[in-house]
Amino acid sequence: MINAVSIDCENRIKAINDIENAEIKSLEVEREKDRQKIEKMRQECKELSMLVDGLKSELARETEKQMIESDARKLSILAVNDLNARLLDMEQLVKNQNRELEDDPVKLRIALGQCKKTLAAVTAKLTEYECHFEETVPLARFEEVLRQLEDSTRLNEKLQDEITGYANRYDLLQDHCAALNTYRDLYMVQCGYTLRVIGSKGDPNQKLEYIGILLSRWRKLINDKPVEELTDMATEELARYESGALPPLVRPNKPKKSAHD
């Protein structure tokens, strides 16, 4: 009985020892894994330290580069700002002149010449700046300065469109002035003929009929003929009027009465 109990106790103690030994081995394996993880983390820390040192060196070089290029950037920004200010001043000048001109052909022609000269100077400045763009502008500010240059170019194109509009309006006013001169000459000739007929001797009814036919003829010509033909006709009529003659007129045919009337 005692032997059996002793054997059973020994077996239990052995089983407990086996379990403890297994746990010890498992803990030793985990400790080794943790040690390897710590070693790996130390290695990664060294690599990160080297990376940080490299980034610090690169940042120092970039800072030095930015300091070297700062003068060029400042000059570029000043050039762009100066160009924008000039373009804005020119746009304001055009607006002010537009309010003052009031469609006067002479003023429009003078303003057109001034705008062309100013636009040529600004275009030359833009071309010169674009030629030296790569030399003066660092890559870090390339997009910003390019955007400013595009804005200036769009403003330049807008001013060019306004100048073209001034030129078109000037040409249109010239045509209107020429047409008004033609209509004025025709009106003066018509008034002269009318006064000449009224002052002449003859039957008042015939005078009235002649004047009516004359006025009807001029109204029809003005409505049917283009301005170019009317200009030539006005020149001929002025010459005829100055010679003291009257225009030959054809009386309109009256409708014949029927036999039943």
From TrEMBL:
Residues 17-104, 142-176 form a coiled coil. It comes from the Eukaryota. Keywords: Coiled coil. The keyword Coiled coil applies. This is Translin-associated factor X-interacting protein 1. It comes from Schistocephalus solidus.
